[in-house]
Design goal:
Radius of gyration: 17 Å
Strand content: 15-25%
Distance between the termini: 34 Å
Strand order of the largest sheet: 1-3-4-5-2-6
Structural class: alpha/beta
Oligomer: single chain
Low-confidence stretches: 5-28
Number of helices: 7
Largest sheet: 6 strands, mixed
Mean pLDDT: 78
Number of strands: 6
Length: about 200
């Protein structure tokens, strides 16, 4: 599903901090989020969704698609037809997906595109959104793919103000108070450890 950004960044009182984190990550291109050791159940999709919700205001829009097969990727890319002013084909083919990507490149909009639950690189090889788009592919497979930075999902506890995610945020900010606000921000970030060091809160 494709959603254009309505602005505003993250929810609640943490919007400024989330927007700041998003600005610091604007150089990101293509990322592979995988489970440690290829194990399932760590919540990569949940983390990707949390990232999309927190930083959607820094993108022209967000496209989320389930990418279990190559045809699923092709079908999912048709979600951009409306925003890009293209007709939606009755039965999408590879050429239709390439037309969508070409139009996206022509416009130069920066979309966040999430390919969720990818089985293998061949399922979307040649179907990578053009720069300056930011592609996140979640998978249980692979140690790395061409042109992708490998990001292993590590979720820290943010259920309480003593949680590891909260402590890391406060240590990074050099603060000894504000645990409640830090816990709220950790929740917005989904407890994803790799966002903590680039995130600040007042």
């Amino acid at each position: 599903r494709a959603h254009r950004a309505a602005g505003g960044g993250a929810r609640g009182g943490t919007g400024g901090a989330a927007r700041e984190a998003g600005r610091k990550r604007r150089g990101a291109g293509h990322e592979l989020w995988r489970d440690p050791g290829g194990a399932g159940g760590i919540g990569k999709s949940t983390l990707a969704r949390a990232y999309a919700e927190a930083y959607r205001g820094t993108y022209a829009g967000v496209l989320w698609l389930t990418a279990g097969t190559r045809q699923a990727v092709i079908d999912g890319l048709m979600g951009l037809c409306g925003p890009l002013g293209l007709a939606v084909p009755e039965a999408a083919k590879e050429a239709d997906a390439q037309a969508v990507l070409a139009k996206l490149a022509e416009r130069g909009d920066r979309w966040l595109v999430i390919y969720d639950n990818v089985e293998g690189y061949d399922d979307f090889k040649g179907l990578v959104p053009p720069d300056p788009c930011h592609l996140i592919a979640t998978t249980r497979q692979g140690a790395g793919w061409p042109g992708f930075a490998v990001m292993t999902a590590e979720v820290l506890d943010f259920a309480t103000e003593d949680g590891a995610a909260v402590r890391l945020l406060m240590e990074t900010a050099g603060k000894t108070d504000g645990a409640a606000e830090a816990r709220e921000l950790a929740e917005v970030l989904g407890g994803l450890a790799r966002f903590m060091p680039v995130t600040t809160f007042a």
